[in-house]
Amino acid sequence: MLERGHTMLGVSLYEEVGRAAYMACFHAAQGLIFERDDRVMKTHHGVRSEFHRLTRAEARIDDELRGFLTEAYKFKTAADYDPSGQMLFTAGDAQVVLDTTARFVEAIAAMLSA
Question: Which run of H or of E encompasses 12?
Fold first, then answer.
């Protein structure tokens, strides 16, 4: 999904970048939950809640990353439910989202490899 986000950035589909970024974070969080608790969380709310519980005391997940899963959900919502385009963001915004998403996925990978 992260690669898809980079592809979407390259063709100026910034809302799609937001959706892909969220899904990359969502799936990474799902993987963490499965590896730590042997549970498969399927709902967006359930994954966000369980992710926050599991990372509350985790030094590798700073406050920015901890809140990013919730923030990224707003980008997905905008892409899915804002046909008027009132929530558009710029190429610069999309790049920041992708950079933060990469940090998010890397932090979870580091947790899982420890």
Answer: none
pTM: 0.89
Strands of 1-114 (E only): list them. Answer: none
Residue 48: domain span = 2-113
Instruction: For residue 2, give the amino acid letter.
Output: L
Buried b (16+ CB within 10 A) or exposed e, 87-107: eeeeeeebeebbebbeebbeb
CATH number at residue 107: 1.20.120.330
The number of distinct structural domains making up the chain is: 1
- DSSP assignment letter at 61: S
How do residues 78-107 score in pLDDT, each as one tens digit?
A: 888 876 655 657 899 899 999 999 999 999
